[in-house]
Amino acid sequence: MEKFPEWLNATLASDASEGEGVLPSNILPLQANSLVVGPAYGVLMSQDDNLSVRKVLENLPAPGTVLVVAGGSTSRTATLGGLMALEMQNGGIAGLVTDGLVRDSREIREMSFAVWCRGVTPIAPKKNGPAIVGGTVSIGGKVIRDGDLVIADDDGVVIWPQERVAELLVKAETRLKQDNERLARLQMKKQ
């Protein structure tokens, strides 16, 4: 798997893409100080049903992948709970981004599995399907394809199209250098 620079974060990713690919602000980290950067693997769940997420565990994507589960924006039940999160973590999945809800939030936080979601619920999902695993999904009007780059931290989630990653990395690094120069000037004035 490709290694990305440690400095890459959602703010720089958003600046580089001029705000394109930023997911809705109601999709928040379950735990503070979470950061994940990795290729997306799309999953489409049915309302109140997570059979598709269960199917991912039967045939795991490459280690370091970020699972992007769409279709949960109106669900009242959990996209996953603690046991599935642990299975994902053990299987090498780097994190989860969903427009749905999760349950067992304390367990998930304690295992330090990186999750961005719309909220929490105690309600278990159905497992009837249909199950769509892999491919293209949409969250908040943003299209996410397998292999697009997910950059997620405390400030939110940004998706970079895979064919623009190299170009956007250069833009993000340029912005980082500008910010660091400005910071150095501001610190000099403070002394």
TrEMBL record:
Its cofactor is a divalent metal cation. Gene3D superfamilies: Ribonuclease E inhibitor RraA/RraA-like. It holds the Pfam family RraA-like. Its EC number is 4.1.1.112, 4.1.3.17. It is an enzyme of class 4 (lyase). InterPro entries: RraA/RraA-like (IPR005493), RraA/RraA-like_sf (IPR036704). It catalyses: 4-hydroxy-4-methyl-2-oxoglutarate = 2 pyruvate; oxaloacetate + H(+) = pyruvate + CO2. Belongs to the class II aldolase/RraA-like family. Homotrimer. Catalyzes the aldol cleavage of 4-hydroxy-4-methyl-2-oxoglutarate (HMG) into 2 molecules of pyruvate. Also contains a secondary oxaloacetate (OAA) decarboxylase activity due to the common pyruvate enolate transition state formed following C-C bond cleavage in the retro-aldol and decarboxylation reactions. This is Putative 4-hydroxy-4-methyl-2-oxoglutarate aldolase.
